[in-house]
Amino acid sequence: MTKLVFLGTGGGRFSTIYQIRATGGLYLMDGANMHIDPGPSAAYQMHRMKLDPAKTDAVLVSHCHPDHYTDAEVMIEGMSRGGLKRRGALIASRSVLEGSQRHGPVISNYHRSLVERIQMAEPGGSTAIDGVKVRFSGTKHSDPTGVSFSIETSAGVVSYVSDTELEESVCREHEGSRVLILPLTRPWGARIPNHLCTEDALEFVRQVRPEMTILTHFGAKLIHAGPERQASMIERGTGVRTVAAQDLMGVHLGKAIRIHRFEG
Ligand SMILES: [Zn+2]
């Protein structure tokens, strides 16, 4: 059984600054435990879900924006049992590890020394975390070195698309995904550069045609417009089951895909 937990569903500046939605990233369990994009509140959300950071096998950071990386060092300390045991993998974009023109680097030398392995995630590349393959592909975003992660789980491919504009070459990389996780920052009719709005996401889903789409990374304006409404527009327009994620929502992937709402 493959499980996903949405430790946050907020994204963009104002959602993050005011924590209108949490921004703790995505936790994936499939033999290996992966924490993708641990932004602000990741540690707290792990605590609320009774997930133990000491059991994380890899921290993955898609790009160098604070809603995706700020708790990465804390989670690395967790993964390495408070820094007492060199353990786990850090997989991150070039901007996060080396820095690019305007971004990063953001992981200290001390935290780099706590992990067993560091790998730069570049489009076209891949890695394996305890036998689970993760492929990297490109995005079109204000951090030009950002990457998406396609995880080949025992229940099919789960694609975590990182912040991007709609572009055919970006969509094409996710064909064959069973679950497509899209960063929907803006609502219908409110497109901004570097991000997806609802009509962009609809087109993305139409091209990829996954079994299910899960929307996350909601900006303040989108939260106001209603994430569920955007999800039903996409579902109606594509015929693909589409869900707006909620904070701490779980997804169980077996033969069927089951959603578990958090009732803490
Ligand atoms: Zn971003």
Briefly characterize the structure.
The chain is an alpha/beta fold and 264 residues long. The chain contains 10 helices and 16 strands. The chain has a single domain (2-260), classed as Metallo-beta-lactamase, Chain A.
Could you characterize the architecture of this molecule?
It contains ten helices and 16 strands. With 264 residues, it is an alpha/beta fold. It has a single domain (2-260), classed as Metallo-beta-lactamase, Chain A (4-Layer Sandwich), CATH 3.60.15. It has an eight-stranded mixed beta sheet. α8 runs parallel beside α10 (227-238). Zinc ion (ZN) is lined by residues 63, 65, 141, 163.
CATH architecture type: 4-Layer Sandwich
What is the CATH C level class, in words? Alpha Beta
Structural class comes to alpha/beta
Order of helices and strands: EHEEHEHHEHHEEEEEHEEHEHHEEE
Q: In the CATH scheme, what's the topology name?
A: Metallo-beta-lactamase, Chain A
Number of domains: 1
